[in-house]
Amino acid sequence: MKKTLNIAMILFVSFLISCGGKEEKKKEGFSYEKKAPTEQKIKKVESLPASKQIDLDNKGIGPISSISLASEIDQTMANHGADVFKKMCAACHRPDKKFIGPAPKNILSRRSPEWVMNMILNPDEMVQKDPLAKALLIEFNGSPMANQNLSEEDARAVLEYFRTLK
Amino acid sequence: MKNILKSTLALLSVLVAFTSCNNASKSNSGALSSSAAEKVYVAPGEHDEFYAFISGGFSGQLSVYGLPSGRLFKVIPVFSQDAEKAYGYNEETKPMLNTSHGFVPWDDSHHPDISQTNGEIDGRWIFINGNNTPRIAKIDLSTFETTEIIEVPNSAGNHSSSFVTENSEYVVAGTRFSIPIPQKDMPIKDYKGNFKGALSFISIDPEHGHMDIKFQLIMPGFDYDLSHPGRGKSHGWFFFTTYNTEEASTLMEVNASQNDKDFIAAVNWKKIEEYVNNGGGTMMPANYAHNVYDEATHSATSTMKKEVRVVNPLDVPGAVYFLPTPKSPHGCDVDPTGEYIVGNGKLSANLTVHSFTKMLAAIENNKVAGDAYGIPILNFEDVLAGVVEQPGLGPLHTEFDGKGNAYTTFFISSEVVKWKLGTWEVVDRQPCYYSVGHLMIPGGNSQKPWGKYVVAMNKITKDRYLPTGPEVTQSAQLYDISGEKMELLLDFPTIGEPHYAAGCPADLIKPRSKKLFKLEDNKHPYAALSEADTKVVRDGKTVHVYMTTIRSHFAPDNIEGVKVGDKVYFHVTNLEQDYDVPHGVSMIGANTSELLIMPGQTETFLWEPKQVGVWPFYCTDFCSALHQEMQGYVRVSPANANTPLKWSLGEDIE
Q: Per the database record, which ranges form the Cytochrome c domain (chain A) (predicted)?
């Protein structure tokens, strides 16, 4: 009994020492399965998170069936789009890093322009029916893409702004 | 044996055929005559045909029901604080309840009336009176929110209110109790001849509905009980019932019931308006609040007005007449043509109906029977159109179906009685459970009622529902009046004690109902219109938090540098721009209600931290799958601490 106590004491003290060494990198209160086990990731190499998957053929579901982008970026439209983005989207999206929702940077290398606009204009139906949007909802903790009631014109301007994010 | 079996089988099959046949014919007849349940059934997801706005009585509010289902949709806070909606609790709406007596958090709301154009309900605004501390409120029917309240000076027991003329020129507010005008310290027993009753004509701005007291008619010291506008041929006149023409000031139930006849006061407001427009009347010192809610700033302001125009009826000859009406008339109701004025003499065995045409003729022929304080009294017989003989006991109110029928409530005999205008014959009667007060036919106070249903608002409930202790809910009843006989369809509970209601087809209001407030139109001085605008600003001991909400976080959600003894104003803007995504917020220990913020709106609550610590706040309206995660902390340091003011959201995010 005494021995076990001693061992426990030693373990405890060594734990304290290892912990106390660096103030900044304090261990969390517990670490039980906080992150998904890494083996699973290795097993399923083929299933990338939805935010990293590339699907340029899927046009999504909503009012936009086809748009064509000019080769040059319309800077005036992009500036307006940046303004709309700042007012209506920035609460959940940072241009170049994951926040509440995914970052729009390089979005057009992963999604069709129609899909992007439909996701802005028709998010409720998209997260119910579009496989990618459904997967994104799960990837982002069930945080819904809010319908901010943008006009098609404003949504198009936001898309133009996204083209500048590279 | 076989034979027996066979014949039994045959007999059985005949029997089966017979019974099934019988069943079929039964169900056929059932489908032909639809049941009361079918008439009030509104299938899930379907909408009601009518809106009914039923006053909340001593709750001070206005409730919104659907007809025929009797389903409650909303309680609109008007004269009383409502913690659910932060009305009268948040900084924006506190000024709505300001009066000359200071902040008054309650009133007794009585008679809603919807605005009209050309004598028909237009569904733009609804007005309702506060009875106790005299006020008139305007509710905007595009937002179902109270947007204006005006106090009525020189008034007490604001009961013959708030009825709207046929082009919404005026909403009219008459005093029930007469008082010294101006108020002064005097013996109560000197009431007679010294107390006066003010009838206030409040103009309505045609575009925004803003209210302004155009003039007050200073009448003899009677009790002005109820009123209604003339319409059609009688447009330009207003009619008020009176009681206590005895001018008693004590033991009223005896002393105010002595005279055989009291009066209906007929007021030619067009004539007085003309007199006032030409500079008539005098400005008298007064003190009354005018509170206006601005939809752009989402905020109300209260202004104290310092004078009011008063008119002595004797200065405008031909503007006011008294029509003798038996026994303390209560309701004063004008039929859709404007010809008949019903005086519901509550202590009379008969129902008295005056004729507008006969009244004009009597005035023209100068048939005056006497005067009261110089106001001419016409002969009862000269103005009488007819009498409904012994229809019931204790008549209170009458409504009309637009098909030549009138419906009167009888409190003592507890029934609604249908009778014919012109022939005065009783057509039908239906019992009420129990002791009905007001009744309402959608559009009943207009030239064009929709005579399909009548709602009876009962004063006594007793055993109509499962008991809930000594205090039980109020009880309303819905009758189908589309046929010759009335048919009781439904009982449904109501809030407070309803006094009158107003209704109209849903199609008049539904298409205009707002779904959200546009962020770009938000002009609130403390709005943060994007997360980039969020900040915390200290100004001495006052701290302003410019906060935003969107599914599912507050920005900022961590605040430090607040100290004990600070006054912390949380100005919270809901950045959502989608229908039905409100967010709520409150702070531990806040001495006020939560906020409930509609999309695009900004609201403010005050928190005065009293204890050092780290205190949480959270979203109080379930907004999304991550609603439980919508929370934050404020660090409160001692009053003398130097903790720097800091705010953040998601700084540790990758």
A: 76-166
